[in-house]
UniProtKB/TrEMBL annotation:
<feature type="transmembrane region" description="Helical">
    <location>
        <begin position="53"/>
        <end position="72"/>
    </location>
</feature>
<dbReference type="Pfam" id="PF00528">
    <property type="entry name" value="BPD_transp_1"/>
</dbReference>
<keyword id="KW-0472">Membrane</keyword>
<keyword id="KW-0813">Transport</keyword>
<dbReference type="InterPro" id="IPR010065">
    <property type="entry name" value="AA_ABC_transptr_permease_3TM"/>
</dbReference>
<protein>
    <submittedName>
        <fullName>Amino acid ABC transporter permease</fullName>
    </submittedName>
</protein>
<dbReference type="InterPro" id="IPR000515">
    <property type="entry name" value="MetI-like"/>
</dbReference>
<dbReference type="InterPro" id="IPR035906">
    <property type="entry name" value="MetI-like_sf"/>
</dbReference>
<keyword id="KW-1133">Transmembrane helix</keyword>
<feature type="domain" description="ABC transmembrane type-1">
    <location>
        <begin position="15"/>
        <end position="203"/>
    </location>
</feature>
<dbReference type="InterPro" id="IPR043429">
    <property type="entry name" value="ArtM/GltK/GlnP/TcyL/YhdX-like"/>
</dbReference>
<keyword id="KW-0029">Amino-acid transport</keyword>
<keyword id="KW-1003">Cell membrane</keyword>
<feature type="transmembrane region" description="Helical">
    <location>
        <begin position="181"/>
        <end position="206"/>
    </location>
</feature>
<keyword id="KW-0812">Transmembrane</keyword>
<feature type="transmembrane region" description="Helical">
    <location>
        <begin position="21"/>
        <end position="41"/>
    </location>
</feature>
<comment type="similarity">
    <text>Belongs to the binding-protein-dependent transport system permease family. HisMQ subfamily.</text>
</comment>
Length: 214
């Protein structure tokens, strides 16, 4: 317990850093994922191409490489932001590709007749998607969206290698101070467990309330 009690503020700072990364990157991933899923099922060909390229490139790019591209590449184009913001961009964009595919699979579970009925009532694509298709698709994608955001929380550990304050990065300081590396990692694992179990609990409640009965 000495590792935790004597360095509680250090662990707390890293824990909060990971929580912030997870929350902000999750919000960005959900927004971009929804947008790209809309593009992928849109009747406009150029939108479908954009959505397909976005998903294909990001899903097949290692996250570490994406971090390098964002944190080291964007400043070369004059975009200088705090490293934490760059980390949120990298995590959010990367995860959005997976959110997009989850949402698209949910959209595909909605019978085509639902969309045709909405269009027969005079609804345009945006109205059909937002008021008819997505509310039904949302119920079936709650569990996979939760799993994707849990993966995002764990992927945030990569940010520590780029001078971003997060939980895993605390082991460097603890190691320099001479604390047991094993116990350092145990308490780090406990921190990640708290975060992932919290996300899991939230989506479990959402699934019980709105999910599709199986």
């Amino acid at each position: 317990m000495d590792v935790l009690t004597e360095n509680f503020s250090l662990y707390g700072k890293g824990f909060l850093g990971t929580v912030e990364l997870t929350v902000y990157a999750s919000a960005l991933a959900l927004v971009l994922g929804f947008l790209m899923a809309s593009f992928r099922v849109a009747p406009v060909g150029s939108f479908r191409v954009l959505g397909t390229v976005w998903v294909t490139v990001l899903r097949n790019t290692p996250l570490t490489l994406l971090f390098f591209a964002v944190l080291l590449g964007l400043p070369r184009f004059g975009l200088v932001l705090p490293f934490q913001v760059f980390a949120v961009l990298a995590l959010g964009c990367y995860t959005s590709a997976f959110i997009c595919e989850v949402l698209r699979s949910g959209i595909n579970t909605v019978p085509k007749g639902q969309g045709e009925a909405a269009r027969s009532l005079g609804m345009n694509f945006g109205q059909t998607l937002s008021t008819v298709v997505l509310p039904q698709a949302f119920r079936s994608v709650i569990p996979p969206v939760g799993s994707t955001l849990i993966a995002l929380a764990k992927n945030s550990a990569i940010a520590g290698a780029f001078s971003v304050t997060e939980l895993l990065g605390t082991y460097k300081t603890l190691n320099e101070l001479g604390y047991s590396i094993i116990w350092s990692f145990i308490w780090i694992a406990v921190g990640y467990l708290i975060i992932t179990l919290t996300i899991s609990a939230v989506f479990h409640v959402m699934e019980k309330r709105w999910g599709v009965a199986r």
